[in-house]
Structure formats: C-alpha cells, structure tokens
Amino acid sequence: MPKSRPSTKKRSRPVKRSRTRRMGESAYGLLLVARTGLMGAVALLLLVAGVWTSWNTAQYAMLVEARERGTMTVTGCQDDRCTGPYAPDERDGRHRERVSIAAAAAPDQGERVEVTVKPGTDRAVRTGAGGVLHAWVPFAGSLLLAALVVAGGMKLRRTAWVMGLLGTVLLGATFAAL
C-alpha cells in the first residue's frame, strides 16, 4: 500500500477563528498587559521607597554646607548605635557631650570621624564618601529587590541585570568605603 504524502498545498484564504477563541485570546492579552503594569508599579514603588528612605539620611551627608559640622570621637557602641563627644568645626555649633551615629557607619572605638548633626537631635550622620554611600544603602537594596520583580514579573531580563548590578556595585562600594 503506498504511503500518502502530506499535502503541500497552502490555503488560499485565512482560517476564521471562532468568536470564543478570539475573546479568549484578547482576555489573555489583557491579563499579560495587566501583569506587566502591576509588576511595573511594584518595582516603581520599591525604588521610590528606597530613595525616600535613603534621602532621610543622605540629605545630611551630602548637603552639609548649611548644617552643623564637626568631628565625633567614638567612645562606645551598643546595639546599632555608637556614641561619643562631638566637637564642632570653627564656623559654628556647640560642643556636645554625647551624640550617636549608626554603628555600621562608625569607625572603631577611639577613632574620630567627620559628622554633621541632624537639627534638633543628638543624632549624627557621617559625611564624606563613606557617609554618602552608607546613606544610599536602602536604595541599593531596593534596586536588588526591584530587579527581581522586573525579571520575574515583567520579563525584562537585561534591565533587571543592570538594576541588580547597580545595586551590587553600590553595596560593594559602601562596604569598601567603610
């Protein structure tokens, strides 16, 4: 019995799909667009939250011209804060018996570090490259989290790689500076 060959004829007119199939394809496309939009909103929310959190400290570390600047000598650390006396620069400010700084940004006990004091508090923020980089650590973390959302939810893998590498570089630079 001879084998039949598959037909090599091309259809001359397009195949008409049923209304139900067309609606199903439209609904699926709408779900894909909605998922991409929602994941984009989540990634944007993560990035905005990271910038917002970082700016609370970064503004004092970066914009120090109008702030009270000086040096702090680290005398002791407890939990996540280190304390010590504060001596202002020549311009203005007052000596303080005790100010506190984040332990992650503080040098070893007995060392001096340049700081600026947050107005109306006894909390100090490290200035210079180390202080600025330390202030932006929450943003670096939000970049890493947003990269996961962008890769998984939006399927934008190259963009996610760039975001993740930027977050990693920022964290690495902070670690190296402190």
Describe this structure in words.
- The structure is a single chain.
- By secondary structure, the protein is of the alpha+beta class.
- The protein has 2 domains: 39-64 and 127-178, no CATH class; 66-126, OB fold (Dihydrolipoamide Acetyltransferase, E2P) (Beta Barrel), CATH 2.40.50.
- The chain contains 4 helices and 6 strands.
- Strands 1, 2, 3, 4, 5 and 6 form a 6-stranded antiparallel beta sheet that branches.
- β5 and β6 (124-126) form a beta hairpin.
- The N and C termini lie far apart (83 Å).
- The model has no long low-confidence stretch (mean pLDDT 88).
Shape assignment: rod-shaped
Helical residue percent band: 40-55%
Domain count, please report it.
2
**What is the average of the pLDDT values?**
88
What sequence of helices (H) and strands (E) makes up the elements? HEEEEEEHHH
**Oligomeric assembly:** single chain
Extract low-pLDDT stretches.
none
Distance between the termini: 83 Å
